[in-house]
């Protein structure tokens, strides 16, 4: 393996995953690049990791480009499998991502630091092991937006230009993303061992996942069942949050479904403009498998694949194991619905609970769908309407005019009248549940195009705006004009 040379800052890395048996990973160093240059650095996240002065440290840029390895790094590529659009691939693995090590953050949480686009590994399957500037900056932007909105997500510590072109449809500038995650364990990690009938591998991974993410479950009578239950609960909460902010992940394959419950892999993701449960952006999702409204079903499907891997650990009696695992999977839709409804109540300004609330929320979505209303702007418009300051016709936050919408508004007002909360307090709470600024596809696209040709200013302003999602910043709130609409997104891999 080629060894980088420059000195890197000493980071307090730990290596619990690298300490697992050899078949869990490949030891492989990043491949150096020609001319590293900062594209973006996340000071807030560096502070959270206890690395406040990292950006200024000599060798930091070289380290995050993969040109310098800290003395105590144990770089590895992780092994995993996965179902891609329903088709099982027994070996995927980190084909272009290299884990440098784990850091304990200022909250005492263990976090992975991984370089994505750091060169080939034995899992590259013919790929170049690299990443292009567009997808790297997209992941930086969208993951920061998600974090600011309170959605669990992997984070971006830095984006570094490599100085080397990568070949996609055409040559584009290469970049490396330094990604921070609660861990990189995926449903596909379990599938990798289960598919090889490596029962010991599944057991080691299960123990590891419990110790790392759910230590309280270690004492349960059936830890593997408890793990399945806990992962299902986190996925239910996560996907509900995606639905609340109009996020379409786009590639919910089992290898992109994190055990931690963080959003991972910002390939062809996008946010809704107009509300449409059938909305698909990804160019590779031809059947609409991962359409906006199918995301809870896709998560359930992924959890069923995790359950299959864990069956032998759940009960030595196969039928009993299946019954117990099925009970968890079958409970998922209700768990998802509970999280979804709780969030929709916050979005609608309801502090109490009534039986009709779910129907009220659904009726709003139907009224929005009927007139192709903008998902984000309608909810933000409701914040004004909630304190009787409804925006005037033609204003950005004016609510749609349609018989269906008018009828719904009356129904909502009647419901609000049965609540004790003051209109002012309600509207303030709603403004913390309904983002004003999301990374609109057309703005993301424009920022990435500019960045590709060397102008980072639009990226930086958009990043600043999405980091304050509750703050009304009209330049970043407009729905796209017809000529600005982004119809398709691409993984860019
Ligand atoms: P993704 O679509 O990003 O979830 O990646 C699916 C699989 O393809 C993973 O095993 C990746 O490591 C691998 N992969 C994606 N892009 C590349 C690339 N440019 N070079 C090598 N492997 C890649
Ligand atoms: Mg992936």
Helix content: 25-40%
Ions, cofactors and other bound molecules:
adenosine monophosphate, magnesium ion
Low-confidence segments, given as residue ranges, are: none
Main sheet summary: 6 strands, antiparallel
Give the count of helical stretches: 14
How far apart the termini lie comes to 24 Å
Counting helices, strands and paired strands, the structural category is alpha+beta
- What is the count of structural domains? 3
Number of distinct beta strands = 12
Cα-based radius of gyration, to the nearest Å? 23 Å
The succession of helices and strands, N to C, reads EEHHEEEEEEHEEHHHEEHHHHHHHH
Shape: globular
Q: Name the average pLDDT.
A: 96
Q: How big a fraction of the residues is strand?
A: 5-15%
């Amino acid at each position: 393996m080629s060894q980088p040379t420059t000195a890197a800052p000493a980071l307090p890395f730990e290596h619990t995953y690298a300490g697992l048996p050899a078949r869990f990973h490949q030891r492989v160093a990043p491949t150096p690049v020609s001319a590293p240059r900062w594209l973006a650095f996340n000071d807030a996240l560096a502070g959270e990791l206890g690395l406040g002065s990292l950006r200024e440290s000599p060798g930091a840029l070289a380290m995050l480009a993969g040109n310098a390895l800290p003395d105590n790094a144990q770089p590895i590529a992780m092994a995993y499998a996965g179902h891609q659009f329903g088709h099982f691939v027994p070996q995927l693995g980190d084909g272009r991502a290299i884990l440098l090590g784990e850091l304990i953050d200022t909250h005492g949480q263990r976090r992975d630091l991984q370089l994505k686009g750091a060169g080939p590994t034995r899992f590259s399957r013919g790929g170049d092991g690299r990443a292009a500037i567009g997808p790297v900056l997209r992941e930086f932007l969208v993951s920061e937006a998600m974090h600011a909105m309170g959605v669990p997500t992997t984070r971006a510590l830095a984006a570094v230009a490599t100085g080397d072109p990568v070949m996609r449809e055409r040559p584009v500038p290469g970049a490396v993303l330094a990604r921070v995650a609660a861990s990189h364990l995926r449903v596909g990690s379990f599938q990798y061992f289960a598919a090889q009938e490596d029962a010991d591998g599944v057991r080691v991974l299960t123990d590891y996942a419990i110790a790392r993410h759910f230590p309280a479950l270690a004492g349960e009578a059936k830890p593997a069942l408890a793990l399945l239950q806990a992962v299902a609960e986190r996925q239910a909460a996560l996907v509900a949050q995606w639905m609340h902010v109009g996020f379409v992940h786009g590639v919910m394959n089992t290898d992109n479904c994190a055990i931690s419950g963080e959003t991972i892999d910002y390939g062809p993701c996008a946010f809704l403009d107009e509300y449409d449960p059938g909305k698909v952006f990804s160019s590779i999702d031809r059947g609409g498998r991962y359409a906006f409204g199918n995301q809870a079903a896709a998560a359930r499907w992924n959890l069923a694949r995790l359950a299959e891997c864990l069956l032998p650990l759940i009960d030595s009696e196969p039928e009993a194991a299946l019954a117990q695992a099925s009970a968890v999977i079958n409970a998922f839709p209700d768990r998802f619905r509970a999280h979804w409804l709780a969030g929709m109540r916050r979005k609608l300004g309801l502090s109490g609970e009534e039986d009709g609330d779910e129907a009220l929320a659904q009726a709003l979505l139907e009224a929005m769908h009927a007139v192709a209303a903008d998902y984000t702007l309608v909810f933000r418009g409701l914040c004004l309407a909630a304190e009787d300051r409804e925006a005037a016709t033609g204003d950005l936050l004016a609510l749609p005019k349609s018989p269906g919408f008018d009828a719904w508004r009356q129904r909502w007002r009647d419901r609000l009248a049965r609540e004790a909360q003051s209109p002012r307090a309600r509207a303030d709470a709603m403004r913390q549940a309904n983002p004003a600024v999301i990374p609109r596809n057309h703005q993301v696209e424009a920022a990435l195009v500019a960045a590709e040709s060397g102008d980072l200013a639009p990226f930086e302003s958009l990043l600043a705006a999405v980091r304050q999602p509750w703050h009304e910043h009209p330049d970043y709130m407009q729905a796209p004009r017809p000529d600005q609409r982004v119809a398709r997104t691409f993984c860019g891999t």
